[in-house]
Fold:
Amino acid sequence: MNPRRRVVSIIGGAECSEKEVQIAEELGYLLGEQDVIIVCGGRGGVMEAACRGAQRAGGITIGILPNLDPSEGNPYLDVAIPTGMGHARNALIAQAGQCVIAIGGGYGTLSEIGIALKIGRDVVGIGTWEAVDKSGKMIKIMRADNAREAVEFALGDSLSKNQ
Amino acid sequence: MNPRRRVVSIIGGAECSEKEVQIAEELGYLLGEQDVIIVCGGRGGVMEAACRGAQRAGGITIGILPNLDPSEGNPYLDVAIPTGMGHARNALIAQAGQCVIAIGGGYGTLSEIGIALKIGRDVVGIGTWEAVDKSGKMIKIMRADNAREAVEFALGDSLSKNQ
Amino acid sequence: MNPRRRVVSIIGGAECSEKEVQIAEELGYLLGEQDVIIVCGGRGGVMEAACRGAQRAGGITIGILPNLDPSEGNPYLDVAIPTGMGHARNALIAQAGQCVIAIGGGYGTLSEIGIALKIGRDVVGIGTWEAVDKSGKMIKIMRADNAREAVEFALGDSLSKNQ
Amino acid sequence: MNPRRRVVSIIGGAECSEKEVQIAEELGYLLGEQDVIIVCGGRGGVMEAACRGAQRAGGITIGILPNLDPSEGNPYLDVAIPTGMGHARNALIAQAGQCVIAIGGGYGTLSEIGIALKIGRDVVGIGTWEAVDKSGKMIKIMRADNAREAVEFALGDSLSKNQ
Structure:
């Protein structure tokens, strides 16, 4: 019986800036080094970069794909889970990690942040959404300036807590 | 062959203020009067009030429930669809309506707004989330001050477009 | 507060025989006459015929579609719920009705029968799957010879029990 | 860039016989030896035994859980994916592997077999369901007498084909 592996969900856009690619790749590398499994949406952009970084460090990557065709996953997935569930699979990504790290991202990422916070997951954000509810309360995202800081937040606090 | 019915999704918190209850009930009434079917998460608060209003006007209400037990739905549902899918059912609610109207709401509502915008649905908001992405761009929500205005936005623009 | 409507799920193939079309249409008609709401997968074949019959009798029809495009639904749906969830939406169809009626059908129908029985729904079958588990136990399907008998099983037993 | 790992889905009852436990454990072991990743429903019985066998051989195991609580997974999961989706998660299990191996099983297993066949996955069965459609056609399951034969079917045919 192996200990359950630590899992971090990485969310962010399939389209993203070069800067975000670098951050995501470093993030994947740092988590892979720590033997943390990466779960993501399995597509390009931030997701692909994070997987590439994780595999460089010997880590394992899992992509929860929106469609049924596993070949749509990026080339750096160890395991592709083809859900065929479209956007409803966003909930699975948000729930899979003991912590969720968001890099930039669009509306899909916003929906994943919503689900993650709804179920009490820690969310770490690098240059991602800000949101304010009707009463003026900000969403609870731990803001990190770079990959190293994000990993510290994730491994220090969230993973020890939610494992 | 009947014409396909117009459907509006109403989202918002199971816990909400008395003011929000009033708005939601009026909203449901106005939509029911127009023979628009209400889809919601089927629980209490904003959802229950909207259904109560819709039924008073002779409208039909559908609740897409998170659990498997249909009796968890509020008493003003004509049809309960017990998904047993938890938060992943939020995507179904966001997708069901030709337009989505948000009243207040918490993290679940935020996730539904994210999905709705992701798939290009018009979102009308009454006292609900504001959100800004990394580049400073605000989410595209049509802001309404009251139920009547929300219905005008929904029926005037969205329903004619997305039907 | 209206009483919750009775709901029956009708499952069966998008491709089917002319005989099955006739049975499905009569089934829909008989249920619609009784003010029972029909839930189905929203596509052609058995599903379309059942919806057509139900609408002829003034009934309401709901299609839980596999894709995101509501226009893929058959023309006899009052409400289309576009899930974008592919085959995972089969569970929703099996769960939606207080009783499930299967007419013929292929592997998708078999999966729906499995889910329905798993959660304890009564399943009525007209010319549909037989299955035997490892111990030689047959699946529990009430076999009907025609639409009228299927409705008697459904309304007599199942709906009064599971409402 | 690592090569995508081969994945086999193992399905079967949470309640099962001692014989099935032995078969499942050997099956997991043989697949783990070949570096094949096991995906299953993450619970007890057949699922737990298969995971235990796989981990003994150094393999990696993934459980796609019905609920949101990862601690409900069996102790031999490397990764728990808590879906909160209930029975709708059966589709994900059936789709995840390039091949599906069924050992015994109840209605949930029957639903997974239905989905797997619907999307064209090879299904290998050891003492599991038989089913016949309305026209008398048997479902297409490759029947194996023991774990070793099941693995030969799975690795010889299915994995080379569907990878």
